[in-house]
Amino acid sequence: MSKYLIKGASIFGSYSHNFKKPSICPYCHISIDVQKKKKNEHSFNGHQLFIATCKCTACRKNFFFACEYDSGKTDYDPIIYPAVEFVPYSNDTLKAISPRFIDIYNQALQSEFHNNLELAAIGYRSALEILVKDYAINELKKDPEEVRSKKLYDAIEIYLNQDGLFKTADVVRILGNDHTHYDRKYPQYDFGLLKCYMDIFLKNIEALYLINHPPVSRTL
Predict the structure, then answer these.
(1) In this predicted structure, what is the pLDDT of residue 69?
(2) By C-alpha distance, which of 130, 189, 140 is closest to 161?
(3) Dihedral of the CA atoms 118, 122, 128, 133 (nearest 10)?
(4) 81, β-bridge pairs
(5) How many CB atoms lie within 10 A of CB 58?
(6) Range(s) for CATH 1.20.120 in the chain?
(7) If you average pLDDT over residues 33-40, what whole number do you get?
(8) What's the pLDDT at 16?
(9) Pick the CATH number of 92-212 from 2.60.40, 1.20.120, 3.40.1350, 3.40.50
(10) What is the pTM of this model?
(11) Which of 75, 132, 155, 181 has its Cα between 20 and 30 A from that of 202?
């Protein structure tokens, strides 16, 4: 998720350009469009400093941010207090399928956290391949050498015969591959769409694992 939203600076006064507004709460780390409680602006050396106190719409805690406005540029990231920190992803179910997936997925998340979306897209595609192949080996009990030799295109087709898994994995594969190319084939689809389908795929494969590994069952 992006750490900032691009918003019109007119909320601070008669400004026609944009500013970066925090989109992740530094307390609960949920993606939000924060509510501004108080705002102010200060001028120094021909620059404008926008200052605001915000309330998180999720945990309802207040935090502070300040950002510089310079001739309409939005290159300057806001200062946020308390500082937003990266929270690693954890999922015991997916870790049981593929510990390596968790590691690669967190590397992609870190790239996204720092707004390196091209690298994040490539990272999510790599994490997908790790998870698909480990799923085939550890859950479907396929021969490891056979699985390792498969291209991701073929692995998805052969090992993910459930419709929800196949379709969502293919979107991540195609859009992830697209970010590795000099000329993108699908520039109309942004990073957010890839991430959306990645999230759907993870939920589906987690649900399938839990269905196949019930903690209790009826006695026959």
Answers:
(1) 65
(2) 140
(3) 180
(4) 64
(5) 14
(6) 92-212
(7) 74
(8) 62
(9) 1.20.120
(10) 0.71
(11) 181
